[in-house]
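Progress narrative, work stream C.
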Amino acid sequence: MKLLDTPLTDCEKDDILKMLDGNICRICISDDSEEIVCMLGFAVDRLSMIAYSRIKQLKNKSEKGDC
């Protein structure tokens, strides 16, 4: 997983969501168990990045004193 200094931009989140969708599609159609496990790993990493970005965004907001 990529470490984030700042929250993801909307464009970066959109790109990650498109790649996540691709991972899910590959999992659904693949006949290769190794590929399925690999795509699952990529999907988990991408979902973690989105969640971590949101946490960074909330943390930055609370440090600035915004409600």
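Work stream C, second folded protein:
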Amino acid sequence: MIKPINQVVTFIKEARDELKKVTWPERDEITSNTIVVIVAVVVVSVFLWVVDTSLTTLMKAVMY
């Protein structure tokens, strides 16, 4: 019963040690990356909307 608890404690200690080694990004980098992601999502969304609308119009023209 004690062995699984020791494994969990060891895992948590090792995870904490690894997180101390991480180089965390600066606020400016996070902000610029977030803007890039938002712009990319908007561009892809508009593209998919245009393709969907075009294909829907084409299918309606063919079907009727």
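The longest helix spans residues 27-63. No further action is required on this item.
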